[in-house]
Design a protein that fits this description.
By secondary structure, the chain is mainly beta. The chain contains 1 helix and 8 strands; from the N terminus they run H-E-E-E-E-E-E-E-E. The structure holds zinc ion. It comes from Desulfarculus baarsii (strain ATCC 33931 / DSM 2075 / LMG 7858 / VKM B-1802 / 2st14).
Amino acid sequence: MAQGVFLKDYIQALAEGRLLGQRCAACGAVTFPPKAVCAACGKAENAPVELSGQGELTTFTVCRVAPEGMTPPYIVAMAKLAEGPCVIGNLEGVAADDADMSLIGRRVRLGSKPAASRSYAVDQCRVLTFELE
Ligand SMILES: [Zn+2]
């Protein structure tokens, strides 16, 4: 039986600039971020897989009321990764007031940055980010 991805390994990979997901041995679907079971079929036979980080922006919103540690306004976006999963992260490098529908369909690269908040349970918590390619 294949082994999944542990949270500490996922966070360590993010800190190193790598995107650690998991591929299901039963159906082949890629799940990101890693979960206890495959997001497509629910089986727990998942092996670690490194993702390319390439994706296409599918939707976004501008956040003007921010949680602790975030400075509004900023853009929260969703992208469909080349390997299949849809991921939510902050779009960096674009001013929130400049965000418009021309962002939809743009190619993005997924990365991460340290979370600024001290409220999270995990000290090394990271925020997923996108940059336009
Ligand atoms: Zn599956």
